Amino acid sequence: MKTRDGHLWFATQFGAAVIDPAEVTPNTIAPPVVIESASSQLMPVAIQNNHIEFKAEQRDFDIAFTGPEPVSASLVRFRYRLEGYDDDWVEAGSDRTATYTQVPSGRYTFRVVAANNDGVWNEEGATLSVRVLPFFWETLWFRTLALLAVAMLVIAADRARLRRLVTRKEELERTVTERTLQLRKEKELTESQANRLMDLDKLKSQSLRISVTSFEPR
């Protein structure tokens, strides 16, 4: 019940409690923030020296935190961010667990801040260094070997192409040489035949002259 003078009366099992709103001062103390634990696939993951490391198959994980506020703990609000993964802060309200799924391998920094019931924020909050280990095919050495293998395949393919070109060139040169020899032989044969024909013509001419001479009257 609110009285005319602005006092608030609350009924309790021990009697009436009277509060003067003018005497109530705002809570200017920002709540501390503590990162409590982490887990993946319902299995706890140890936090050591403010650092946590998840295995390659632990891409889904939870990080639990709290803000121990002695007066109004239920009214503490949180926001968190996984730097390197989240583009912006995630408003968590009164939830005290950050859940992530399919986080790529890499190094991240988890930050969480909290505000008390009067909206005073603890901007410093708490931080946690997070590392997600890569699968072997995501490692630098594997990618380097893969690039080297691809480069070797490209070089081998190029050399094979050059060998094919050289072989084809040699075959063409051999074909041209054989054809040239064949044409030369055909030419020589043609010339030989022409010479034989000329000789035959001469023989015919001589035979004809002899025949004509033998039949001339004396």
Describe the protein in words:
There is one protein chain. The chain has one helix spanning 140-214, and strands at residues 8-12, 15-19, 34-40, 43-44, 51-54, 61-66, 77-83, 90-93, 97-100, 106-115, 121-132. It has 218 residues and is α+β, with helices and mostly antiparallel strands. Strand 3 and strand 4 form a beta hairpin. It is rod-shaped and about 170 Å long. The chain starts with 7 loop residues before the first strand and ends with a helix.
Keywords:
218 residues; alpha+beta; five-stranded mixed β-sheet; four-stranded antiparallel β-sheet; 11 strands
Layout of SSEs?
Blueprint (H helix, E strand, L loop, with lengths): L7 E5 L2 E5 L14 E7 L2 E2 L6 E4 L6 E6 L10 E7 L6 E4 L3 E4 L5 E10 L5 E12 L7 H75 L4
Parallel strand pairs: 5-11
Antiparallel strand pairs: 1-2, 3-4, 3-6, 6-9, 7-8, 7-10, 10-11
